Structures are given as structure tokens and as C-alpha cells.
Amino acid sequence: MKIVLMGPPGAGKGTQAKSISLRYSIPHISTGDIFRKNISNNTELGLKAKSFIENGDLVPDEITIALLLDRLNQEDCLDGFLLDGFPRSIGQAEALDKYLLERKQHLDAVLLITVPSEFIIDRMTGRRSCISCGASYHIRYNPPFTSGKCDICGCDIIQRKDDTEEVLRERLEVYQSQTRPLIDYYKSMGILKEVDGTQSINAVFENMTRILGSAYNK
Ligand code: ADP
Ligand code: ADP
Ligand code: ZN
């Protein structure tokens, strides 16, 4: 199963991705998590990406596409994958299509999580993230069992540097101008499925599994 998760910052992509990846035994590929790992390990890629991420801008396509295709070439992606936060531009979507076409493969579904903007600031400023596995928590809506520690791996959870109101405003603008056009792109391919992201975390997940069940069995 090959799935793309789309939605504005704070829609719940990362939260749902962890559960979908477990349910369907497919790797969860988050370009944001890969960038952050590289930044904390001071790699060359991390150095290149850092300023874009801190300002809330997209890391240039050239860098991001190379990184993603390299990840898709790894063996665990042979039977499927779940992309969280990629593609974020038409250029990235075209590069992904080209890669799949060359392998006679295709995406099974693009799940778009919709949330009105008034939800987003509250979700993002209350978000806390695991420094190791990237799992998302929320101080009110999804707190960890043990305060400050990740339920999955036990590592520290922190507030991301780009989860401030100021950077968030830029990220939302970037979403509108560069990522939103992908909605029509995937609609015209007939694979876009919308999910109401204002429901509870569990309800959103149930909704997604229902959609994926029918997309995959058709
Ligand atoms: P994204 O990856 O799309 O930016 P996250 O999955 O990190 O979003 O979720 C953003 C914040 O909102 C996190 O703090 C998360 O715990 C919280 N959240 C996610 N889904 C829901 C939901 N359905 N209801 C309430 N809060 C949610
Ligand atoms: P969110 O949880 O808000 O969806 P991510 O963790 O997916 O955020 O991404 C964090 C930052 O990493 C983005 O604001 C952007 O700077 C960079 N980034 C992640 N994925 C991409 C991508 N596909 N193209 C360009 N930049 C990206
Ligand atoms: Zn963790």
C-alpha cells in the first residue's frame, strides 16, 4: 500500500501516521523527522536544511526530492510506504510520480486531513514532540502517560523550535501557496480522499482505515 498523508501543519498527519504505519506494516516516512535527525546530528544535509526549517520555509525541492527518493529506494519500501509531509510542492509530486511510473507503481490513496485554521494555532502551540522517534503529543488533547517522556520510546519530549506563532504563520502561508495546489493535482488523478480532522484522534484513524480498506480492495 502506497499512501500520502496531506494537510496543513497541525492537521494530525504525524499522529495518524504512527498508527497507520503499525496497522498496515508499512514504513512511516516523514521528511520533517529526517531533516530534524540530520540537524541534531550536524550532518551536511542538516546544515543545508536548518535555516529553511527555522524560518518556516520549504527546504528546496532539489535537496528534498533527492532525500526522499533515496529513502524510497531502501528495501523496506518495496511493498509500500506512508509519506507524511511529502510532497509539499507540485515539483515534488511530479518527481514522485515519475519515480513510481518508472517502476510501474502508483499511489493507492492521498489522504487529505482537513482542519479549519482556528484549530491550528491551538494544536501547534500545545504540541510536544519526541526528540528521538518524532511522536507527537499535545499538552491537553494527547498528553503522554509520563509527563515529559515519550510513550513509545521513553525519550524526552520537547517543543519544536518552529512551533512558535511567528514561524507557524509563515508555515501556513507556505502551505497555502505551495502545498494546497496539490489538492487539485491529486483530485484530478482521482485518488484524493478527504478526512475531517476535527474529530477525535481515534475517530480520524477509524475513518482513514475505512477509506484505505476500500481504496486497496478495489
Ligand atoms: P502534523 O504532523 O499534521 O503537523 P501532528 O500529528 O503533529 O500534526 O498534530 C498536531 C498537534 O495536534 C499535536 O499536538 C497532536 O497531539 C494534536 N492532535 C493531532 N490530532 C488531533 C485530534 N484529532 N484532536 C486533537 N488534537 C490532535
Ligand atoms: P508539520 O508537522 O508542520 O507538518 P514537518 O515536520 O512535516 O512539519 O516539517 C517541518 C519542516 O521541515 C517544514 O516546515 C519544512 O521546512 C521542512 N520540510 C519537511 N518536509 C518537507 C518537504 N517535503 N519539502 C520541503 N520542506 C520540507
Ligand atoms: Zn519517542
Brief account:
The chain is an alpha/beta fold and 218 residues long. Helices cover 50% and strands 15% of the residues.
Strand and helix order:
EHEHHHEHEHEEEHHEH
Count of runs of 4 or more consecutive helical residues: 9
Main β-sheet description:
5 strands, parallel
Q: What level of helicity do the residues show?
A: 40-55%
- Say which CATH homologous superfamily of one domain is assigned: P-loop containing nucleotide triphosphate hydrolases
CATH class of one domain: Alpha Beta
Bound molecules: adenosine-5'-diphosphate, zinc ion
What structural class do helix, strand and pairing data support? Answer: alpha/beta
What topology emerges from the helices and strands here?
Layout: E1 2-6, H1 13-24, E2 28-30, H2 31-40, H3 44-55, H4 61-72, E3 81-84, H5 90-102, E4 109-114, H6 117-125, E5 127-130, E6 136-138, E7 157-158, H7 165-179, H8 181-188, E8 192-196, H9 201-217
Parallel strand pairs: 1-3, 1-4, 2-3, 4-8
Antiparallel strand pairs: 5-6, 5-7
Helix pairs in contact: 1-9, 2-3, 4-5
The chain binds adenosine-5'-diphosphate (2 copies) and zinc ion (ZN).
Question: What are its keywords?
Answer:
single chain; 218 residues; alpha/beta; Rossmann fold; 5-stranded parallel sheet; binds adenosine-5'-diphosphate; binds zinc ion
Can you characterise this structure?
The protein has a domain at 2-26 and 79-117 and 164-216: Rossmann fold. Helix content is 50%, strand content 15%. The protein has 9 helices and 8 strands. The structure holds adenosine-5'-diphosphate (ADP) (2 copies) and zinc ion. The site of one adenosine-5'-diphosphate has 20 residues, from helix 1, strand 6 and helix 9.
